[in-house]
Sequence to fold (313 residues):
Amino acid sequence: MSIITRSPFLFRINTGSCNGCDVELATTAMIPRYDVERLGCRYTGSPKHADILLVTGPITARSKPYLIEVLDELPRPFVVVAIGTCPTSCGIFRDSYSIEGPLDKYVEVDVNVPGCPPRPQAIIDGVAKALEIWKRKIRDFK
Amino acid sequence: MSGFLKIAIRNLLKGPTTDPYPFGDTFIPQKLRGKLKVDASECTACRTCEEVCPSGAIKITKNEGAYVHTTWYNTCCFCGNCEFFCPTGAIKLTTDFHTAHFQDEKYSFVTVAVIKETECKNCKTKFVPPSEALLKRAYNGIDIDLDELKLYCPECRKKIAFERLHLWLRH
Ligand code: SF4
Ligand code: SF4
Ligand code: SF4
Fold:
């Protein structure tokens, strides 16, 4: 069976973000001004369809099981993008007792987009980089 | 006319509202707090920025003959505290928002400034030269050659200032 290499699906998960990054991410998804789907990807509501995983938040103790669940459900190969300073290094929440991040403890991250929150354009940059990696991964997977 | 038709016609006349980025230019607000820039010639390695940084993004280390000022963007929250508290204006946030990078650059995505020490003209001890901005503030309204003063370490500078005062009092 051949793998379709066009229109990868994006799936996003919030792992305890303050909502700042989610607002910027929603901006890239829903406001025509920063339409990220122009790059040839689409948002999906199910991790089972996802090719690119976008993660916001520092991975709080409460949200960790959900992240693990999503990681288990992703079809291989997949690309992981850390959106914001939180998933990249836990940012200002580093050393808190309730924080279990950063993200690269649990999964191989491909792209980081630090910023608190990052600008929509920076997120688009990150998705563009993720698409590059995804194409490479698909090629190597076949 | 219904709202939808109005928008449809407006879009037909005005063209797409989408920001052309990443295929074209984008709008950048003047006050955007992006990546920062450190002017090594203004920085005195006073560590104020390291102290006030809420996320511990700045580290200043001492090497042989120089201080190394490193800012790690992966933990910086772009609050601007460092710029606000820097006494010499050496650190400034720019409008550069390009922060996306691949994972293998995670720990090298930094800004580095090297602040070199110089030798005191008088006693030969090593010290970080004070910046012009700092001296102007310290010797505000005093008739003194700042470029000459820069060559002396704080101890010798103190002595020179005191001697000046002494001479002035004797007159
Ligand atoms: S990076 Fe900043 S804006 Fe984004 S979730 Fe963390 S604290 Fe909020
Ligand atoms: S902008 Fe804020 S978080 Fe970033 S280096 Fe300066 S003080 Fe630290
Ligand atoms: S950048 Fe400013 S606050 Fe930071 S060490 Fe240099 S002079 Fe001090």
